Structure formats: C-alpha cells, structure tokens
Amino acid sequence: MKPFSENIIFFDTEFSSLNPYKGEILSMGLVKFGGEELYLELLQDCEIDPWVQKHVVPLLTEPKVTREEAVKKVFAFVGPGRPYMLAYVNQFDALYWYKLIGGVRDNAFHWIPIDFASILFAAGKDPQSFDWRRKESIIPGLGIDYAKYREHHALDDARFLREVYLKMLKK
Ligand SMILES: [Mg+2]
Q1: Which of 145, 150, 164, 168 is the most buried (most CB within 10 A)?
Q2: What was the pLDDT predicted at 171?
Q3: Owning domain of residue 143
Q4: Do the domain assignments include residue 2?
Q5: How many angstroms separate the alpha carbon of residue 27 from the centre of ligand 1?
Q6: Spacing, Cα 124 to ligand 1 middle (Å)
Q7: Is 87 within a domain?
Q8: pTM
Q9: Alpha-carbon separation of residue 81 from 8, 9, 61, 69, 150 (angstroms)
C-alpha cells in the first residue's frame, strides 16, 4: 500500500447516538502518524442511546472538558498542517466533529476526511474485515494483539487503527 500522504491523524470518537440529528461526541482519541496522542472526554447534556450507555459510558472515566475546551485542545494538538482525519467508518466521527466546530470551515483537519473502510475496499478487502471477530478479518494476519485495546474506548480505537494502518503499509 502506498498512500498519498503521511500527514494523517488517526481519529476515533465515541458518540451518544447513531441518529445524526441527536448524536454528539462523548469522547475522542487522536493519534498522530508518529504516535503522539490526545484523549478527551466531553461534558455533554445530550440523551444517550441505551447501547452507548451500556458499552461506552462505563469507559468514560477521565475528567470532562467543555465542548469549547475540547475544540481548543484538538486545534492545539493538531497544529497548523491540516492533516487528513483518518477514521474507520468515518461518517459519524466527521459529522459529529463538524457539529462541535459548527461546520467544515476553520477546521483543524483537511476538509476531506479519509475512511479506512474505503481503503480496505480499494485494496480488495471486505470493509468489515477490520473487525477481528469476523472470519475474513485481516487483523490476525497482521499479527496484531487486539486484546490489549479496550474496544469502544476512543483512544484505544485510534491506536488500534494506527497499528493496523502501519502494518498494512509494510505489506
Ligand atoms: Mg470507537
């Protein structure tokens, strides 16, 4: 695999709902190509879907920051280089990030978000093969110890995505 650019931030969010009218970011994990990390949990007063309440909320154990603080911290971490936001099934991550910043203008990231599921598709792989539970999964073949990552923890999900991506670069 020979990607266009290494100016990438691996990005994952946990959010309150799959309904885009209602969903808001509860936590976000950002990992730079070189490994530098940012993790934030947000103070939100939105309604939280039952599935999220059960699987995500128990992992939210850090002090919470306001939406405004979160945006500031992300901009400071990302810096001026407009990296590409790379996420797995990125539509919700990107959309809820836009909700936080109020659109795509004045974005910390390049305005085109990159979807890892589409990268898999273009590489001739099932876009669901990122899931280590599936029999067609690419993860065991890459030699990744997925057990060390807390699933649905935004930082661990972003770290996992980075490890998978870097391993795929070597293929
Ligand atoms: Mg996640």
Answers
A1: 164
A2: 80
A3: 8-169
A4: no
A5: 9
A6: 24
A7: yes
A8: 0.94
A9: 10, 11, 31, 20, 30
